[in-house]
Design brief:
338 residues; binds phosphoenolpyruvate; alpha/beta; binds manganese (II) ion
């Protein structure tokens, strides 16, 4: 439920309400607006005497949250979340985010080269996998700790945030110590222990949609992270499994406006994993931005045929540059910057 405080309610009144709710076993999440503060309260309503809260000084009203996800819901927070991901970059505001880089970190020289290229073409966040979820146990699984170090070096050299995946609860601390943004991959979207663990960190979480997940399941996964106290969740639509086989997955463009109606969290489009084919990456990226996404994640590789993973969907630097030029026009047409 949401406790709506009167305009300009005093800090002491807000604190008193929070304290009373905590006494009834509720978790509280105050959201401070310009004039109004609302307090999200999550807990067992049967344990509480509503009238007791309603009569407290500074309380205007109490309204239930109807959706199964509470903290992620727009019912609780109407304004869009703008997430600070470090190095002066935010996701969710007027400036579009461009996360780019190879699928996997393959080596120091290569990653640094790719990082410099994508930055020069306008990317503002570096992506790369150090721990790679692979369908085959025999495929390249990533450079792990070494990969994290390489990414950090590139991020620091170029003053850019880095986004990288964690696959196991045992690696969360390690990944959080290097990354600016922690990615939860599609295959782990419902790994609830992992979601809780990253929810305990203070790093923004890049939550990819599960291969066959509904939007409600996806938002419930965000809720798991947020319920541990980490509100900084960024959604990523990366295509879902359908009966269509001509693309690796099917990009669900409508997930962009639908999630924006349901949640205050930002959403990024990933045309690379959605299509699995470099030829379709640019049109799908453009569709994502035109539909209102807060940015894109794109895989870029200077030698797709030699890539350790996801070569077929990787854009060569020239193609990435062309895409950025087109996205600038689309961004301008919809009143955004890139
Ligand atoms: C990736 O970003 O490289 C990745 C493995 O993505 P997904 O989890 O969407 O398949
Ligand atoms: Mn990939």
């Amino acid at each position: 439920m949401i406790i709506i405080m009167h305009d300009n309610a005093k800090k002491s009144e807000i604190a008193a309400v929070e304290e009373r709710l905590a006494k009834f076993g509720f978790q509280t999440h105050p959201i401070y607006g310009e004039k109004k503060t609302v307090i999200g309260a999550i807990g067992d309503k049967r344990q509480i005497r509503m009238s007791e809260i309603l009569l407290m000084s500074g309380v205007e009203n109490i309204v239930p949250i109807m959706r199964p996800y509470k903290l992620a819901s727009k019912e609780l927070k109407k304004e869009k979340s703008v997430i600070d991901v470090g190095h002066g970059v935010t996701i969710g505001g007027n400036k579009l985010a461009v996360l780019a880089g190879p699928c996997a970190v393959e080596g120091r020289e290569h990653f640094l080269r790719m990082a410099r290229i994508v930055k020069a073409e306008g990317a503002n966040i570096l992506r790369g996998g150090a721990f790679k979820p692979r369908t085959s146990p025999y495929a390249f699984g990533g450079l792990e700790g070494e990969g994290l170090k390489i990414m950090r070096e590139a991020g620091d050299e170029l003053d850019m945030p880095i986004c990288t995946e964690v696959m196991d609860t045992r690696d969360v601390e390690l990944v959080a110590s290097y990354a600016d943004i922690i990615q939860i991959g599609a295959r782990n979207m419902q790994n609830f222990k992992l979601l809780r663990e990253v929810g305990k960190t203070n790093k923004p979480i890049f939550l990819k949609r599960g291969l066959a997940s509904t939007i409600d399941e996806w938002l419930m996964a965000a809720e798991y992270i947020m319920s541990e106290g980490n509100d900084n969740v960024i959604l990523c639509e990366r295509g879902i499994r359908t009966y269509e086989t001509s693309t690796r997955n099917t990009f669900d463009v409508s997930a962009i406006p639908v999630t924006q109606e349901l949640t205050h969290l930002p959403i990024i489009a990933d045309p690379s994993h959605a299509t699995g084919n470099y030829k379709y990456v640019a049109p799908v990226a453009k569709a994502g931005i035109a539909a209102g996404a807060d940015g894109i994640m794109v895989e870029v590789h200077d030698c797709p045929e030699c890539a350790e993973s996801d070569g077929p969907q990787s854009l060569k630097p020239e193609k990435f540059a062309d895409l950025m030029a087109d996205l600038k026009k689309i961004a301008a047409a919809i009143g955004k910057e890139i």
